[in-house]
Structure formats: structure tokens, C-alpha cells
């Protein structure tokens, strides 16, 4: 009977034998090949020992087989090609000699034994040194992949492997292929690797038309949204990077607004573009909260959507308006604030805004005094002008409303940010689009990709049209300060939820207490142009920012126009006056005043508009005013021209719209 120990020993011995056999199997083919060569040489001798024709045939066959091996190895590494050709040539030469002379003639037995062992061992050594992820295996796989996508003649060079990122140098066949061929093949490479299109991109070498780096990010680290938990650096300078999310390899997604003379970076204007459902609102909040958390910047905001997304941040803005005439006034103010700020910076020897400009000017090198002693002037914080849902503003003001602002603002320490869904040329002039080179491009219609991103970035593999509204927050960013190799790398902004509201409210109050205030130059220029329309931060008696009450009283019937507030609804209507018209269809109604009375009434109207903060007007605004005051309308256009000649009005960039010149400024 077999004991338990005998059984254990037998099992162990069997396991060891099976393991050794398993490990030896991959190394057996070269030895079996040597045995096969010996058998082939011996058999050939029995058949063709005395045949001259067979000798010639075997010699030609050996040459042909060696040549075929060399040709077949053209897609492999040079070392493997040479090794294979030497092996085939040696084996075929021995078989030919053995067939003619006999396998035991002369030195043939010794050659067989020593040469066969050496060749078999050389293949065993090669196999032992090669691992599944070694260069040979990798190169072979890469060559097969490139052959599948039409780039068979391309050569893979230096390969850099990082966590979730592989970068391989690619050299194309000179004279036959260019980097454009790689750009066209990117989607096929993604298909061959079973990856999304955005996971594969190509960065061409600017100094070569056939070289570049193929970048593959195998795992999308953006699938799970990252919730916003607050600004990255509260209290830091606006010159520090603004973190708004992360790239698909996990690195932070950062942008810069001010320029940096030492880094050779200019100030940035941004275009934020994305279709409905692409996460454009969250992208805006990411960037906006970063800006408002810095200590040396002020922000103006125009939002025709009545601050739907930004209401918790309202106290932190230096000036916030809705659309229409208020936005017109803001644009007019910007056009005058920019040269005023540029003049201040020039007088203080700043070639462009730096963070030293935000503090009190105690450095003699930045003095505006002729004797170059410290002037002590108040500093000038950086400024951001944000135009949300700008398509509405562009329709109202014209497609080049921001052109002059964008072209001149950089030197004044001002960044313009324009947000809209579709930055097509029928909404925005080519000049304005060219002045907004920095872009945050979110998901869009595939046909609109060229409106958001430069063609060169699309050629590298950036395709926001592949996302549409299915991946909110996914974006590409093109801007100064970002490595151009990152332009085609997708990122994702942080997600704002209902839990973010309380944090935004705290951030707004922090900004009120610790944020920058408008400098005298900026505030003075704005007030000189639009008067009371520029509000700045309004504070109440407790020092808190007073946000206008937006309660809608219309439903309760309690809201009245200012002109009607003192009206007694029970009083009789006033008697008819001379000049009142009979209300006939198709004819103007209302009293027609005489010339002098018209002048006085018009002056009163301008005062009322100015007191209400509406500093940009046109004939349509006076239509409602005339109806409220029971006056005819035909005299309005003439009085607008007269007021312009008197200096009370100035024409704007939009035909038929006029800017009220504040009384103090006019004086």
C-alpha cells in the first residue's frame, strides 16, 4: 500500500517535472530544427549523392531560401532579420554539403554538432532575453498596428511610458508620407486599439514635415466628474495659475490671464464655446470663482440671463448688469476705461500690467513724478470683463462690438472673456474672433469644431464634436502658458452642484472683505462716461454689499413705475389739452409740444434716463417715454441730433444709439 508520504513525494515529483517541461517547451523548437536538419541532410544524401543536377538545384535552393528569409524579415528588427538569415544560410549550406558528400564525410559531423548547438543556443538566449513587454515584442506589435492603418513604412523611435500616457517618436517615410497622413489615420489607430478618438493624438515636430510624437492615453480618467470644493488658492494673485479641472492623465487643468514678461506670455482674452448641455455653465463658474478668489482683480459681468448661474456671486462683482441698454453702457464704459488704464500704466513705466501695479506705488522705478521719487499713487488691480451669452449682445450691438476692446485691452491690464454657444462667423466678426485666440472648447456639433479650435489642433486629434452634450465639462484649452503639446489633450472642468451654492456665497463675502476695489482711474473713467449706471460695489450701513431686491411684485399687483408711484387711482382724469390728437388708427397720438417746450421736455427725459442709470438710448426708448407722458413722437429724432450737437449725447458704435454724457463730465 502507498503511504501518504509516498503519495506526496510522487505528487511533488510530478509537479516539478510538469513545471520543467512547461518551461522547456518554448526552447525546444530550435533543437528540433537541428534534428530536422540532420535528418534532411542524411535523406538527401541517399537520394542525390551522385546527382550533379541535384547539387546545382540544392545550391540554388539554399540561395533562394536565404534571400526569401532576408526579404520576409524586412518588417522585423534588423537584429532579428540578420539572425534569421544566418541561421537559414548555415542550415541550407550544411544540408547541401551533406547531400553531396554524406553527413559523416570530413568535417561535416563536427560542423553539425558544434554549429547546430551554437545556433540552437543562440535562439534560446534570444528568447530568454526577450520579455512580453520588451522592445522586440513592442516594436513588432507597433509595426503591425502601423501597417493596419496605412503607415507601414513609418518607424517607431524613442518611447516614453508614463502613468496612463505613452509617447512614441514617429518617423515617416521620407518623400512618401507627411504628418498630414498621421492626422488622417488617428481615428483608425483609435479603432485598432479599441480606444475613444480623443485618446489618440499626434504632435507634429515644428521643424520637420515627417516627424512627431504619437501620444496614447489608454484610460480615460475623466469619466467620473470631480465636484468643485472651492477655489484653489484663495487670496493669491491673479498672476498665479487658475485651476479649473484636470486633464485625462490626471494632471491639473490650468490657465493664466495676465501676461508675464519674464515668461514671454501675453495677457489672454478667452472665448468659452459649447453647445447646450456641454457644461458651459460649470466651465464658466470654475473660471469665475478662481478669478473672484484672487486679491488683485476686479470683474465686470454682463449676463442677459439675469444671473441665473451666478447669483450667489453677485456681491463680489465690481459691476454686474443684465442685457439690453445696461450692457450697451458697459461696453461704452469699457471703450473709455481701457485708454485711461493704459495711460496710467504708461505714466508709471509699466509696459504691461504686473502684480506690482496693483499695490500702492512706492517704487521710484514706477513713479509718475518727474523727479522719479516714489509717487504713492493708489494701485490699479487687474480687470476682467466677462460677457456671458454674448450672442445676445452681439446681435444688439453688431458682430464687431468687442473688436476694439479685444485689440486694445491687453496693454491696459484687462482680459475680455466672451461666452456663447456657437462662435460662428455670422455671429462674431473675423476680427473679433482673431482677437480671442485663447479658447475653452466644450462639446459641440461636429460641424462647428472649426469655429472653436484652430485647424492645427484639430489635426492633432482634438474633436469636441465627438462629445456633443454627452460628456458635460469635457473640453480642450488653447491658451498662452499651456504647453502646445497639451492643446489636443482633453480635460474636464469641476462640477457645481446645489451644495456648491453655500461655498460660492461665502466666497462672495470673502471677496467683499478682502478683494480688490476699483482704482480711481478705472472708476473715474467709467463714471465720466456712464454716470450713475456704473454702480461699483454698493454697501449698506453695515458695510455689507447691497444686492438689489429682485422680488417680482408684478403678480401681486403692487409694482408701479416710478412716474406712477404718486398717482391717485381714484382721481379724475385731467381735462383735454390743446394739441391732443384724436386716437385714429394709423395716426400718431399724443400732444405735440412747441420748440422751447420740446427742448425742456427732452432735457428732463435725459435727466430721468441718467437718474435711472440708463446711459445708452435711442428713439425706441423715447417711444415708451412719450407714451407715458402723453406726448407725440415725431419730434424725438430731431431732438436727438440737437442734443448731440450740444454735447449732451454722443453717438455709439451702433447706428441709432446714443450715449448720454453725464452732466458733471460735460461741464
Structural summary, described in words:
- The protein is an alpha/beta fold and 667 residues long.
- The protein folds into four domains: 24-129, no CATH class; 135-216, Threonyl-tRNA Synthetase, Chain A, domain 2; 245-533, P-loop containing nucleotide triphosphate hydrolases (Rossmann fold, 3-Layer(aba) Sandwich), CATH 3.40.50.300; 593-667, Arc Repressor Mutant, subunit A (Orthogonal Bundle).
- Helices cover 40% and strands 12% of the residues.
- Strand 5 (242-247) and strand 6 (252-255) form a beta hairpin.
- It is elongated, with a radius of gyration of 40 Å.
- The N and C termini lie far apart (123 Å).
- Mean pLDDT is 80; it is low at 131-139, 539-567 and 576-587.
Kindly summarize this structure in a few lines:
With 667 residues, the protein is an alpha/beta fold. Helix 2 packs parallel to helix 4 and helix 4 runs antiparallel to helix 5.
SSE blueprint and pairings:
Layout: H1 4-24, H2 28-48, H3 52-72, H4 78-101, H5 108-129, H6 135-148, E1 155-162, E2 165-171, H7 179-193, E3 200-204, E4 211-216, E5 242-247, E6 252-255, E7 270-273, H8 280-292, E8 297-302, E9 319-321, H9 325-347, E10 382-387, H10 390-397, H11 403-408, E11 414-420, H12 430-434, E12 438-442, H13 449-452, H14 455-459, E13 474-478, E14 491-493, H15 500-514, H16 520-530, H17 595-611, E15 616-617, H18 619-628, H19 636-645, E16 649-651, E17 658-660, H20 663-666
Helix pairs in contact: 2-4, 2-5, 3-4, 4-5, 9-16
Amino acid at each position: 500500500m502507498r503511504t501518504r508520504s509516498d503519495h506526496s513525494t510522487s505528487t511533488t515529483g510530478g509537479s516539478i517535472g510538469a513545471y520543467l517541461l512547461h518551461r522547456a517547451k518554448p526552447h525546444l523548437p530550435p533543437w528540433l530544427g537541428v534534428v530536422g536538419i540532420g535528418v534532411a541532410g542524411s535523406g538527401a544524401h541517399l537520394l542525390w549523392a551522385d546527382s550533379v543536377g541535384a547539387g546545382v538545384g540544392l545550391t540554388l535552393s539554399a540561395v533562394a531560401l536565404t534571400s526569401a528569409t532576408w526579404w520576409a524579415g524586412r518588417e522585423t528588427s534588423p537584429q532579428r532579420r540578420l539572425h534569421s538569415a544566418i541561421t537559414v544560410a548555415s542550415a541550407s549550406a550544411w544540408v547541401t554539403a551533406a547531400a553531396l558528400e554524406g553527413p559523416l564525410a570530413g568535417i561535416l559531423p563536427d560542423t553539425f554538432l558544434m554549429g547546430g548547438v551554437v545556433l540552437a543556443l543562440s535562439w534560446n538566449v534570444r528568447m530568454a532575453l526577450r520579455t512580453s513587454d520588451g522592445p522586440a515584442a513592442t516594436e513588432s506589435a507597433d509595426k503591425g498596428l502601423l501597417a493596419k492603418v496605412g503607415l507601414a513604412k513609418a518607424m517607431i523611435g524613442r518611447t516614453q511610458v508614463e502613468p496612463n500616457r505613452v509617447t512614441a517618436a514617429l518617423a515617416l517615410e521620407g518623400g512618401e508620407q507627411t504628418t498630414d497622413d498621421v492626422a488622417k489615420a488617428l481615428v483608425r489607430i483609435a479603432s485598432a486599439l479599441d480606444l475613444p478618438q480623443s485618446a489618440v493624438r499626434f504632435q507634429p515636430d515644428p521643424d520637420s514635415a515627417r516627424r512627431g510624437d504619437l501620444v496614447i492615453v489608454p484610460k480615460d480618467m475623466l469619466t467620473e466628474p470631480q465636484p468643485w470644493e472651492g477655489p484653489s488658492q484663495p487670496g493669491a494673485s491673479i498672476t498665479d495659475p487658475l485651476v479649473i479641472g484636470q486633464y485625462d492623465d490626471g494632471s491639473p487643468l490650468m490657465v493664466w490671464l495676465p501676461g508675464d514678461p519674464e515668461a514671454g506670455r501675453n495677457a489672454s482674452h478667452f472665448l468659452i464655446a459649447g453647445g447646450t448641455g456641454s457644461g458651459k455653465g460649470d466651465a464658466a463658474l470654475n473660471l469665475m470663482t478662481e478669478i473672484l478668489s484672487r486679491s488683485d482683480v476686479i470683474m465686470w459681468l454682463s449676463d442677459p440671463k439675469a444671473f441665473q448661474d451666478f447669483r450667489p456671486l453677485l456681491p463680489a462683482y465690481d459691476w454686474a448688469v443684465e442685457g439690453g441698454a445696461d450692457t450697451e453702457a458697459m461696453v461704452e464704459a469699457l471703450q473709455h476705461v481701457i485708454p485711461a488704464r493704459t495711460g496710467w500704466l504708461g505714466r508709471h513705466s509699466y509696459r504691461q500690467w504686473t502684480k506690482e501695479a496693483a499695490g500702492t506705488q512706492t517704487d521710484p522705478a514706477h513713479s509718475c513724478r518727474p523727479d522719479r521719487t516714489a509717487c504713492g499713487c493708489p494701485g490699479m488691480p487687474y480687470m476682467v470683463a466677462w460677457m456671458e451669452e454674448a450672442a445676445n449682445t452681439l446681435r444688439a450691438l453688431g458682430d464687431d462690438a468687442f473688436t476694439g476692446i479685444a485689440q486694445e485691452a491687453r496693454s491696459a491690464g484687462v482680459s475680455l472673456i466672451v461666452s456663447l454657444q456657437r462662435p460662428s462667423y455670422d455671429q462674431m466678426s473675423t476680427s473679433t474672433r482673431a482677437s480671442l485666440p485663447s479658447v475653452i472648447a466644450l462639446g459641440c456639433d461636429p460641424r462647428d469644431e472649426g469655429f472653436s479650435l484652430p485647424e492645427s489642433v484639430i489635426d492633432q486629434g482634438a474633436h469636441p464634436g465627438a462629445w456633443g452634450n454627452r460628456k458635460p465639462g469635457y473640453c480642450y484649452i488653447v491658451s498662452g502658458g499651456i504647453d502646445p503639446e497639451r492643446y489636443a489633450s482633453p480635460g474636464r472642468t469641476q462640477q457645481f452642484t446645489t451644495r456648491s451654492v453655500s461655498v460660492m456665497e461665502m466666497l462672495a463675502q470673502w471677496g467683499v472683505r478682502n478683494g480688490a476695489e476699483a482704482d480711481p482711474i478705472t472708476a473715474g473713467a467709467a463714471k465720466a462716461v456712464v454716470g450713475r449706471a456704473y454702480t461699483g460695489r454698493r454697501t449698506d450701513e453695515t458695510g455689507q454689499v447691497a444686492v438689489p431686491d429682485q422680488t417680482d411684485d408684478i403678480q401681486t399687483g403692487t409694482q408701479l413705475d416710478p412716474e406712477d408711484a404718486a398717482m391717485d387711482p381714484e382721481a379724475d382724469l385731467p381735462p383735454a389739452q390743446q394739441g391732443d390728437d384724436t386716437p385714429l388708427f394709423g395716426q400718431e397720438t399724443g400732444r405735440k409740444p412747441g420748440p422751447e417746450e420740446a427742448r425742456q421736455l427732452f432735457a428732463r427725459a435725459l435727466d430721468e434716463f441718467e437718474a435711472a442709470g440708463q446711459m445708452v438710448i435711442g428713439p425706441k426708448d423715447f417711444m415708451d417715454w412719450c407714451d407715458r407722458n402723453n406726448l407725440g413722437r415725431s419730434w424725438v429724432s430731431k431732438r436727438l441730433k440737437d442734443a448731440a450737437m450740444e454735447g449732451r449725447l454722443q453717438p455709439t458704435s451702433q447706428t441709432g444709439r446714443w450715449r448720454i454724457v453725464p452732466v458733471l463730465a460735460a461741464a
